[in-house]
């Protein structure tokens, strides 16, 4: 549905904000853009509906290069790619109903059509009871729901969300994420989310672009991000994995001991694969680090272990275990 090719953004002060960005978003995907502050996330989001025109490169929507559209067509384009800003941008003098109705009023739609559409979207985002309330009377979650409803009122093909949970408490954050998932499933709507919160990526995204200093450090399925970039992700977004690496590697210098990193994905995550294979080859296992998480619809697990064998079968153990897990890396 959306394809970004060789995208660059250079400001007048010669600050090269986006550098040769390439990725694709398919129909119905929830797509995450993540990175630390200053990585270029919001700048990239603003280029996708041409609020910020790129310096070079192409953005294809259904195979049409939208960077070539004139001002007349730009208005219609923005109906297809709607954006919800980080700070909601609700008009304080308008109630919830009127804030959501604003795009339809600009299009000079019939009053009855406006009422029908707004009432329907209010039901979808569970805000019917707040239709006459003003922004000052709303909670953070209710303001976000209002902004999302306004973004959806013209039935866009893609919904862009800029840090939709950054100002919300954990409970409200979960409700907003549930709403985004519901909208995605009910309308098969492609959604692109900019966030600096790794938990948002884990819980709802199908694919992710990881930006670093304006460049794409990773693009692909969420679980592959953790397989390929786990150590870097932990250092940047969480904390370093708490392992005495020097001790682990000292042990692994012996021929009979190996240091392994194992990744489980999907249905095998909760199976006793390690226990079964270690018993088969009479291998002793020392778990140094382990975790299991849920990335949207599938569990994902990581283990870092020392394995020891005096019977010369340690390589056979590693080979069979590798065939039963998502990935296995011999660290030393």
UniProtKB/TrEMBL annotation:
One GO term (biological process): amino acid transport
Protein's name according to its UniProt entry: D-methionine transport system ATP-binding protein
Species of the source: Oceanotoga teriensis
InterPro entries linked: AAA+_ATPase, ABC_transporter-like_ATP-bd, ACT-like_dom_sf, MetN_ABC_transporter-like, NIL_domain, P-loop_NTPase
Domain ABC transporter: 2-238
Sorted UniProt keywords: Amino-acid transport, ATP-binding, Cell membrane, Coiled coil, Membrane, Nucleotide-binding, Translocase, Transport
Coiled coil: 104-131
Highest rank taxon of the organism: Bacteria
A GO cellular component annotation in the UniProt record: plasma membrane
One term of GO molecular function: ATP binding
Family, per entry: Belongs to the ABC transporter superfamily.
């Amino acid at each position: 549905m959306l394809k970004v090719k060789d995208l660059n953004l250079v400001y007048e002060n010669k600050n090269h904000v986006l550098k040769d960005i390439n990725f694709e978003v398919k129909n119905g995907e929830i797509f995450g853009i993540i990175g630390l502050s200053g990585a270029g996330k919001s700048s990239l989001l603003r280029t996708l509906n041409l609020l910020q025109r790129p310096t070079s490169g192409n953005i294809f929507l259904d195979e049409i290069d939208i960077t070539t559209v004139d001002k007349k067509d730009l208005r219609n384009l923005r109906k297809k790619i709607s954006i919800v800003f980080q700070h909601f941008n609700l008009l304080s003098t308008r109630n919830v109903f009127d804030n959501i109705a604003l795009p339809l009023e600009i299009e000079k739609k019939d009053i009855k059509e406006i009422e029908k559409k707004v009432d329907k979207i209010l039901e979808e985002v569970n805000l019917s009871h707040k239709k006459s309330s003003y922004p000052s009377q709303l909670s953070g979650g209710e303001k976000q729901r209002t902004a999302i409803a306004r973004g959806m009122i013209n039935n866009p093909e893609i919904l862009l969300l800029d840090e939709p949970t950054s100002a919300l408490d954990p409970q409200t954050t979960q409700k907003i994420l549930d709403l985004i998932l519901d909208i995605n499933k009910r309308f098969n709507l492609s959604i692109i989310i900019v966030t600096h919160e790794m938990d948002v990526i884990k819980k709802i995204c199908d694919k992710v672009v990881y930006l670093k200093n304006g460049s794409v450090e990773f693009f692909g399925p969420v679980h592959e991000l953790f397989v390929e970039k786990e150590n870097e992700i932990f250092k940047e977004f969480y904390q370093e994995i708490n392992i005495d690496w020097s001790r682990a590697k000292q042990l692994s210098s012996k021929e009979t001991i190996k240091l392994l990193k194992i990744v489980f994905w999907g249905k095998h995550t909760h199976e006793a694969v390690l226990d079964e294979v270690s018993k088969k080859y009479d291998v002793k296992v020392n778990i140094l680090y382990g975790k299991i998480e849920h990335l949207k619809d599938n569990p994902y697990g990581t283990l870092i272990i020392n394995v020891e064998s005096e019977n010369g079968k340690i390589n056979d153990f590693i080979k069979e275990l590798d065939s039963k897990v998502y990935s296995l890396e011999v660290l030393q």
